[in-house]
Design brief:
By secondary structure, the protein is α+β, with helices and mostly antiparallel strands. It contains 15 helices and 30 strands. Strands 12, 13, 14, 15, 17, 18, 19 and 24 form an 8-stranded mixed beta sheet that branches. The protein has a 5-stranded antiparallel beta sheet with strand order 1-5-6-4-10. Strands 21-20-29-28 form a 4-stranded antiparallel beta sheet, with no helix packed on it. A hairpin with a 4-residue loop joins strand 5 and strand 6. The two termini are 36 Å apart. The relative contact order is 0.15.
């Protein structure tokens, strides 16, 4: 991101000091207000080791409110999306960038405390460096050393504050707490992401077309009945044509995403993604990218993120698989759409936020799919308002944002209480949940919510060895209020929180997509295919289909949720019919070949192992259901 050094005159600083302290009142501290969400979320269980050295370094990013305030931007985004009258990036910046006067006032406050400041070219934030002593003075905090959750960090003992004169201009601060804030890819691949993986070749090409009765196990293992029924083998992984022809059956001829650009964000960048996607497409009956159809926007460099808790929190090779899935899934659903990949410098929040800045400022994309997120929502993210500003800028420009809702169901297994995941829970994005999906030659013939129990053979019977293995994220946010469009649709949120998911698509790894990727095998790097799932699959499937709706409409759509909740006829209500209780998975023990033997399991569908449910109408597992051809009709 471009920056420029900011020079603030002594006169300006003097005027600011006078405004903050009052003439002749040098000993009085200026009145101040707390900065939103600036108290560390872990503070209640952290151990204070004592004050940090006043000379210890501090690196902080101060995010600035849009000109006119966040409420004005929210109103503009809602109006633009309802009328489909959007601004260009240049028009947005002229209207909503923080003014030079605001940048000068906030910078004057910080430099007056002894900190150094440089400003983002579009005035989104100020990068601030200096010492703990200067930061304590500027933000009205006491920075101490702490341990929490296996980490040793430097953080404030309470909320940061800003002087009254500039407080409305500061919407978020990152960096006072040095706890590494990272997001994770939301794929479910049954092996370490940096290692190669292959599916055992005992599987169904179409859902249900191979069973133990028709295809014996390769090692002679006798598979017991499951609750008295013979279950089919899991699909080998649906190909692009299988997914596209099933979900988009009945769509208007000629809809293929032509003229639309789908943006994808992830951390890092796979060096083989375009070659892998082209080979995957041609091997499975689709066309490779034409020249210029796939492009990438890169940061100036990449970085590994380290902490005391994990020496390598951001595994670049793990993100390569995520990127590959996203690109191949979008290309499958919208084979003529342009795809532009925006790589994050790392998996830290600030670096992913920077990808949104690039997307919004370029103004090339029509819809953005994001297959990553945090875990839970009891504590509001420090950068909540910074994220929302990015989503709202996109909406004002006609850019829609979609996010995976997560792969841990209601998060009770991880966190002890039902929670949704952010950013999917933000009201200005569309949260895409996951289904278990039966695709046959007749199309999508069965769907239910994705919540899985894993069964293995114990004493010649299937026994539930992992009661909750994984499942699509959903439920009700504990800290983000239910938006008006959900209230108007009659969604009954028991805690008044934002309800998730909004919609859903195939996400269960057992009924997932076949993807092709260059991976690391014992003999070296090689291309191969494997089945993969997660709501990381659901979001790009939905984004690819929405590209066809944008093509049909002839313009961008901005905020999708008000449209979806007002009229959801284009979505198939998922009620749990037309699909078995689960499928049999046959896997290589070593994840590579038969030399280590085979392992057998049943992965159930829609097990009642969370607080989430499937039912008629909107529900906490599948939202309004999965998109069909009706979703592809033009928006007015």
């Amino acid at each position: 991101m471009r920056k420029h050094a900011l020079g603030v005159s002594l006169v300006a600083i003097a005027a600011l000091v006078a405004a903050l302290t009052g003439a002749g009142a040098a000993t009085a501290a200026p009145a101040s207000k707390p900065v939103p969400n600036s108290t560390p979320g872990w503070l209640s269980h952290g151990k204070n080791l004592g004050a940090a050295s006043p000379n210890a370094p501090v690196n902080v990013r101060v995010y600035l409110a849009p000109n006119g305030g966040l409420d004005a931007l929210k109103a503009a985004a809602t109006a633009a999306s309802s009328r489909h009258q959007f601004l260009t990036p240049a028009q947005y910046h002229a209207k909503f960038d923080a003014t030079a006067a605001t940048v000068g006032a906030v910078s004057g406050w910080l430099t007056g405390a002894g900190l150094k400041v440089s400003a983002d070219a579009n005035h989104r934030y100020l990068d601030v460096t200096g010492s703990v002593g200067a930061a304590n003075k500027a933000f009205g905090v006491s920075i101490a050393n702490f341990t929490h959750d296996g980490l040793t960090v430097q953080a404030p003992t309470g909320p940061a504050s800003a002087p009254d004169a500039v407080a409305a201009s500061v919407i978020a601060i990152s960096g006072l707490d040095t706890t590494v804030s990272v997001v994770q890819p939301l794929t479910q691949k049954p092996s370490p992401p940096s290692a190669g993986f292959r599916n055992a070749p005992v599987c169904s090409h179409w859902y249900g077309d191979a069973t133990p009765a028709t295809v014996p196990t390769p090692d002679g293992t006798t598979l017991p009945l499951f609750n008295g029924a013979t279950l089919p083998y899991a699909p080998c992984g649906y190909t692009g044509p299988q997914l596209r022809n099933s979900y988009e059956a009945g769509a208007t001829a000629g809809l293929d995403g032509r003229g639309v650009t789908v943006a994808i964000t992830d951390a890092y960048a796979s060096p083989t993604v375009e070659a892998d996607a082209n080979r995957y497409a041609t091997d499975n009956g689709d066309k490779a990218f034409t020249a210029g159809q796939f492009t990438q926007s890169m940061p100036d460099s990449f970085r590994q993120v380290q902490s005391n808790k994990s020496p390598k929190q951001c595994d670049a090779s793990g993100w390569y698989g995520e990127e590959t899935l996203d690109v191949e899934a979008v290309h499958a659903m919208a084979p003529a759409a342009n795809i532009r990949y925006y790589a994050g410098k790392s998996c830290q929040d600030t670096d992913l936020l920077d990808t949104f800045s690039r997307i919004n400022d370029e103004g090339v994309a029509d819809i953005v799919t994001n297959s990553w997120g945090g875990v839970g929502d009891v504590v509001k993210p420090t950068l909540l308002q910074a994220y929302e500003t990015a989503f709202l800028q996109g909406a004002v420009e006609g850019i829609s944002y979609a996010f995976s809702t997560g792969d841990s169901g209601d998060e009770v297994t991880n966190l002890g209480t039902p929670q949704t995941d952010y950013p999917a829970s933000d009201p200005y994005v569309t949260g895409v949940g996951g289904t278990s999906t039966a695709i046959t030659q007749a199309g999508v013939t069965g769907e239910t919510g994705w919540q899985t129990t894993k069964y293995t053979i114990v004493s010649r019977a299937w026994s539930p060895t992992t009661p909750f293995l994984y499942g699509g994220g959903g439920g009700y946010s504990s800290n983000i209020a239910e938006p008006d469009y959900q209230l108007a649709a009659g969604i009954q949120s028991p805690n008044g929180g934002r309800a998730l998911p909004d919609v859903s698509m195939d996400g269960d790894p057992t009924t997932g997509m076949l993807v092709g990727q260059t991976q690391s095998f014992p003999g070296g790097a090689a291309y191969d295919t494997y089945r993969i799932g997660g709501t990381s699959l659901a979001s790009p499937l939905f984004a690819g289909m929405t590209a066809l709706k944008i093509q049909a409409s002839g313009h961008g759509l901005g905020l999708l949720n008000p449209m979806i909740y007002a009229d959801h006829a284009g979505f198939h209500d998922v009620t749990g019919t037309g699909i078995d209780a689960g499928n049999i998975r046959v896997d290589f023990v070593n994840g590579l070949d038969a030399s280590g033997g085979y392992t057998y399991s049943v992965r159930s569908f829609n097990t009642k192992n969370t607080t989430l449910t499937v039912g008629a109408g909107w529900d906490t597992e599948t939202g309004w259901g999965s998109a069909r051809a009706g979703w592809l009709t033009p928006a007015p």
